[in-house]
Design a protein that fits this description.
Blueprint (H helix, E strand, L loop, with lengths): L1 E4 L10 E8 L2 E10 L3 H10 L8 E11 L5 H13 L3 E4 L3 H10 L15 H48 L3 H15 L3 H11 L9 H19 L9 H4 L1 H4 L1
Parallel strand pairs: 3-4, 4-5
Antiparallel strand pairs: 1-2, 2-3
Helix pairs in contact: 1-2, 3-4, 4-5, 4-6, 5-6, 5-7
């Protein structure tokens, strides 16, 4: 037995499907997709197809990926079925975004049908979905900003890697390790470490600050003892040693 309904929001066409079976006299339903507008019709169809002698209904929603305000109506549909047929009903498996919405609404995800539902659940549902989407938007904005920063930083980091490779005979991976370790040792952002190395390689370019020079030298030494075997820099910092190669 399978019932399905189309999802309502564009860009994520994940239809809701409900499959059912009986086990020990109980009806076990499994939902996959999204609980959105039209989902109650799908659930009603699945409930209607259940054997008349079913002694209870359990709906597993662990396969549900999205829940909006309209989707909360499945709880009313299940409760009504239980009252009409005089059988216990349960909903289990809430996780991810759907679970978060239930929590924001004020329902217990472990037993959303067991406790008294707030009278303003519809208003709370709309607010919960809006809040959850706002949280997702904040996360996406942060990821976009981090990606933009990484793209802006890539050219200068690549230049610094090339300078270190020329100065110390390192591989690209080892040059990256030197930059990364110097950043950690000096508590300096990786982009700033790369900028300092690149600037110091230019004719009459400024030397990196002393803490960064020390961190670079330590990083080069550690990589060399790990098998990089860079060329000697005559006691100079890696950035200073790289100046002739930059010319």
């Amino acid at each position: 037995m399978t019932s399905a309904a189309d999802a309502s929001h564009p860009g994520r066409p994940v239809p809701l499907a409900v499959q059912g079976r009986t086990e020990g006299g109980r009806a076990l339903l499994t939902a996959h997709g999204e609980l959105v507008r039209g989902c109650t019709d799908t659930l009603t169809g699945a409930l209607t197809a259940l054997p008349a002698d079913a002694r209870g209904v359990e709906l597993d929603v662990s396969g549900v990926s999205f829940l909006d305000t309209a989707g909360l109506a499945v709880l009313d549909t299940l409760s009504a079925y239980g009252r009409r047929h005089g059988v216990p009903v349960r909903v289990t498996g809430w996780q991810g975004q759907p679970r978060r919405v239930l929590e924001l609404v004020g329902l217990d995800p472990e037993d959303p049908l067991g406790a008294a539902r707030p009278t303003d659940v519809s208003d709370r549902g709309a607010s919960a979905v809006a809040r959850e989407r706002a949280e997702q938007l904040d996360v996406l904005r942060l990821e976009i900003e981090q990606l933009r920063h990484a793209m802006d930083s890539r050219p200068v980091i690549d230049q610094a890697r090339g300078i270190l490779m020329a100065a110390h005979g390192c591989t690209p991976e080892q040059a990256w390790e030197i930059l990364r370790e110097a950043s950690q040792r000096s508590n300096t952002k990786l982009r700033r470490v790369a900028s300092a190395v690149t600037a110091s390689a230019a004719p009459d370019g400024p030397a990196p600050p002393e803490p960064l020079r020390t961190a670079l030298a330590a990083a080069v030494h550690r990589v060399s003892t790990a098998g990089c075997a860079p060329r000697e820099s005559c006691g100079r910092s890696p950035a200073r040693a790289a100046r002739p190669a930059a010319g």
